Fold this protein.
Amino acid sequence: MEKRAKATREQNAKATTKKNAKGARGAKDGDAVSRLAGALEGGDEIELTVTGRVSHRQTTRPVWFVLERRTLYLLPVKGSDTGWYKNVLETPGVGVSADGVSWTGNAMPITVPARVRDVVEKFRAKYGARQIGKYYTDLDVAAKVPLA
């Protein structure tokens, strides 16, 4: 049973990656990225949609983000124990929505401590060190979603 579930997860991940890669080549996708980047400017929160690693259902939740040079940085509130982070390790395809604009891409884990610290500093600069200390309990990992 476990082998079947693992094979299904791998197929879903490949299909999502293929779909996202195909869409990224089209001119319309470049327009969507520009619209999303515009919607993210000055925003504090996105709707992040991930595929459950066990249920294989899509779930959406609000998360804070930092946008820098068409890369979306995400910081899981419970670090590597955060559900959405565990889900993107299994299925990297994510949906991002902000201000009525939606886009799909692939989340990439950041685990190198120096890079995680860089992301944490970006979050502290945007949201304030006090807020990050209040809501984020473990700062061992981060994720990035390249928009282009």
User: Anything to note?
Assistant: Residues 2-24 form the longest helix (23 residues). Confidence is low (pLDDT under 50) at residues 5-10, 12-27. Helices lie at 2-24, 27-40, 83-90, 113-127, 129-135. Residues 2-146 form a domain with the Pnp Oxidase; Chain A fold (CATH 2.30.110.10).
